[in-house]
Amino acid sequence: MYDIIIIGAGSAGLGLSSFMNKAGFTVLLVDRADHHIGGDCLNFGCVPSKALIHVAKQIWHAKEKAPQFGLTTSGDIDIKKVMDYIQHKQNIIREHENAEYLRSTGIDVVLGHATFASSTSIAVEGKEYHGKKIVVSTGSRPRELSIPGVEQAEVYTNETIFSIQTLPKQFLFIGAGPIAVELGQAFQRLGSQVTFLIRSDAFLRKEDKEVATILLEQLKKEGCQFLFNTTPKEFVSPTSLVVTKKDESEETLSFDAVFSGIGRIPNLDRLSSEKAHIELQRNGKPVLNEYMQSTNKRVYIIGDAAGGLQFTHAAELHIRLLLNNFFSPIKKKLNTDTFPWVTYTDPEIATFGLNEKTLEERGVSYTVIDESFSNDDRAIVDEGTCGRMKLFVHKNKLLGGTVISQHAGEISQELMLVNSSQLSLRHLFNKIYPYPTAGRVIGTTMVKYFSDKTFTTYKKMLKWLYH
After folding, report:
1. Which of 138, 141, 158 is nearest to 9 (CA)?
2. What confidence score (pLDDT) does residue 464 get?
3. Span 417-441, pLDDT tens digits
4. Angle at 140 between CA 138 and CA 144, to 5 degrees
5. What is the CA radius of gyration of the chain?
6. What is the DSSP secondary-structure string of 432-465?
7. Is there a smaller number of Cβ atoms within 10 Å at the N or the C end of the chain?
């Protein structure tokens, strides 16, 4: 019997198995196939998408920015070479994310389709394995389009887009979540005409609406088109889709290819969960308590498979929670009040902590610090003056916020630290920021915030003390 069995060798499974193995426990790690190790992040998500975004950004700057300095470019993008670049970067990371390497570290790795055989065991390719604890980290998969005639069209998801061989001239993106928006901007920059088809009027609905609008306007400037309040009705040919608008009128859209970004489904439906007395909701998500335990207390479900926040670093949060509760008498519950994420568009959007809606629902009083980057010296020289920062503050404590700017994910790191560690904003005020770093905008914002408070309250006292 293993101390722990982990089903799924994505971010969650790799991280947890590595720790447990190094701590001296017997670990069995199971995944479908060697090339699936690394999970969605390495194979279909974070790594290939950021490589694509990097390439698209270089190309776009060469085409759109360089001409003002006398440099012009010509030629068409070779999408096969772009895909080769992406696969090369994946293979570098894959050197330490494969069955042979993991076995060399002491982890038992079995490849094949795993199903539950009982409350304490799983079966893989006809062989049964028992574990004191079982952790399911099987990830998620794209939700399929269920539109009449869809089988006629060339439809891509994040699992197939990185093997594309021809750059679509007219590329229709259905959905406007982070995955679709990141990839849509990248393909627009590579040379496709990208059109976003969105059922509602919401764009990046998890983001602050004012901040999301800044990105929306940038995408429009780059040529992306948006059809809001538009519902796909039927594919009438391999390159035609009939849609219904808000006023119930219909229109036929032409395209070369479609990208589907309409949500994700936890990979739990093929595990025979009922044999382990694990309950699933009607939407396919697991029934979990605040400790990530399923209805079978020996079975934990983490990462995308848990059906909550679907980020690689959410899996890291789940791992830390499990490890604490495995070894500490003081059990912790899952808490995402300081959870951060970044949407890797250009400009990026970095969000962390509690948003205004949640603060209002909880009845928490707060002040909004809303600062434009229009007068920031580094933003001016870097052509990043569209940037903006919104912070929600109570008694000098940072409750949450969002930043949109070039490199927002990097700039906002110390804001995330202050938020997660419950530090006073005075730590940022007292810090000397090198000039003209991009992160200096945080320092100038803090100076303005505390100076305004000081002048309002202590202006007369300051004059008296000076004289």
Report:
1. 138
2. 75
3. 999 999 999 999 999 999 999 999 9
4. 140
5. 25
6. PPPTT-TTHHHHHHHHHHHHHHHHHHHHHHHHHH
7. C
